[in-house]
Amino acid sequence: MKCIGQDIGFGDVKTVIEDQMLKTPTAIAYEGFGARVDLDGPTSIEFEGQNYLVGEDAIESGQPVFETTSIDFLLRYAPLLAYHAIKAAGFDFDEKIHLGVGLPVSYYTPENKAALANRLNTAVVNKERLQLNTLVYPQGVGAFYDYRLTTNEKISSALIVDIGYNTVDVVHISKGRPNKSGSGMFDRAGISVIIRELSRFISDRHQIQLSNQVIKEIFISKKLSLYGKEISLEEPIRQIVERYTTHLLHSLEDGYHQQLAQAQKIVITGGVAHYLQHYIPTKMQESIVIPESPEFANARGFYKVLIASISDSENVDA
């Protein structure tokens, strides 16, 4: 029986299986005329009567890539994204899989939690039944358990700041447990803010419109390839990130001043977590923790919790 931790984000799907950590773009496009086909066979995936291109195949196809910033998108296409990522990691669905996934804090309602689990547990993709037993957690909780189970520290109070593509999830830990009343979410405040500003810069300066997924790759590489010429964007990206992180930290201090002041640890996760190190106020420096490979912290935490819960169950059964 396999355990898989998966963070199905609006920008990327992060998957943790045993010692593997894999990131695949949250990119979906309809298979259309002229779509790229590998020599080994077609790259499309059939799901609910429609053929799709997923991940890098969608980005490189030239087909329009779906907008990926709504909870409706996540609930509808989670099985397709999960299937693609698990297959990319080299695993099959020949046995029952325990899957741990997350939902952004403000979307973590009983209805959405049940809908996501049901979609994943009953899905058939490419004529394969996924055989999933899905547990759904609030986004950010995985990062807390990743830190706690890695360090074995007993933490009674903490604040988890999980910077995703579309949302920034803030999870308050009180008396060693997630506290819903002290938690929250900044919607449309994640890395997508940086991507939109970088897109405007490229459009204004170089008169070219690019998809958000392509802009995301430019943000990572800090280079724009245009008509055979490579253009460095390191300085404009630095300025954009500096403005973003300064604004985000101000928003956190305004909205979560008490939680920040009383937290033993402030755990910052997500793909841009390391950028924030340069802008952390001195008074917070000692409590700030940025885990290794911070974009995988949630998926690692979901995976570790599943392993621990199954181990406890087996010990009870024994």
Automatic annotation (TrEMBL):
Residues in Actin homologue MreB-like C-terminal domain copies: 160-277
Family annotation (CDD domains): ASKHA_NBD_ParM-like
Entries under SUPFAM superfamilies matching the protein: Actin-like ATPase domain
All copies of domain Actin-like protein N-terminal, residue ranges: 5-142
InterPro entries tied to this protein: ALP_N, ATPase_NBD, MreB-like_C
Cross-referenced Gene3D superfamilies: 3.30.420.40
Protein name: StbA family protein
Native organism taxonomy: Bacteria, Pseudomonadati, Chrysiogenota, Chrysiogenia, Chrysiogenales
